[in-house]
Amino acid sequence: MEFIVLAFPEEQLRVPAVEAVMGLRKTGVVRLIDGLVTTKTASGEVLAAEFDEFVELRGLLAGRDVARLIGPEDVREAAELLDRGSCALLLVVEHVWAQDAAVAVRAAGGRIVGSVRIPAERVEVA
């Protein structure tokens, strides 16, 4: 599983970007486990809202896979990454493709011995 913070430069979500991210869920590549919307107002106030408070996100967190894992401390830490007057989607996702691959590796007698996320900046430089 992974905790992801997707920041947007205004206090409102950009619907096309949200739709693209949520499209991954529909394909079965990732499973959405938890999510919140966090806003850092122009005055610096930090707000958090459930998905169901947004028409474009309503119903995304429904079903047996949902767990409330994002807490107030996570919201505060994510808000530190935001500029004033911006917002973010906070997501906990399970990488379904990785789970399927791990099962296949174990069935072949292998094991996963490490994993490192490579920052986008490094990929661009390479």
TrEMBL record:
<dbReference type="Pfam" id="PF19850">
    <property type="entry name" value="DUF6325"/>
</dbReference>
<dbReference type="InterPro" id="IPR046288">
    <property type="entry name" value="DUF6325"/>
</dbReference>
<protein>
    <recommendedName>
        <fullName>DUF1269 domain-containing protein</fullName>
    </recommendedName>
</protein>
